[in-house]
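Researcher: Good morning. I'm working through a list of sequences from a screen, and I'd like to move beyond sequence-only analysis. For each chain I'm collecting a predicted structure so we can compare shapes side by side. This is the next one on the list. No need for commentary yet; just the structure.
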Amino acid sequence: MVADGTDGRDGGGDAEVDASGDAEVDASGDPAEGSDSDAAIDAILGAYALKDEGRTGWQLRGVDAPESVAAHTWGVAYLVLALGDRFREDLPGVDLDRALRLAVVHDVAEAETGDVATRADSTADRVDRERKEAVERAVMVDLVGALPDGVRDAWEEYEARETPEAVLVKECDLLDTCLQAVVYERDDRYDPTDGTPEAFAEYDALEEFFATAEPRLRTDAGRALFEQLRERYRGMRD
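Model: Good morning. Structure tokens for this chain:
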């Protein structure tokens, strides 16, 4: 038996069980990497709330079993991968691998704030973007503080909308919503009398989702894809 109380295996002095027996700690007294108290694990568990956080706009419109924020995030990332090359003329030098990193984290703050639906400019329920960003920036301190700086940096880059990658992800964010509207229309997944019908008094069916996206698109490629999606949607309505 060795003097320090370990079993003598290599690395035995790097981590030990604390006095309560609840978790391993390293020599500094902090949770050992890989222990149940690892702050990074706690942060990831917090972000996993996105898997259950429903997208508010669809809920308001009475969509049956609407997608979660995490499902939307997957859609955005998939569009970056599948259609990103179409944006190269509009966004010279765009790095699709980098854009994927931004796509994965672009809505992570909503694990704490919940999803706040962006409304068409013509409605009375427009979101104060500056206030929304301030609230999200504050909760990001807790959500990703224990994670590598690259996670927060990717989110900040997306919010700034200054790089080709951030613009691409925002275009795909808007287009994903239009694609989802096509899916819900095709599958007859909503009842306009359910949800909160008065919130959509100015628009028929799912038209507001297209009205919200259209003025926010910044590229020719994004606008061309948008027109295709709106044409498909309206063809289903005829």
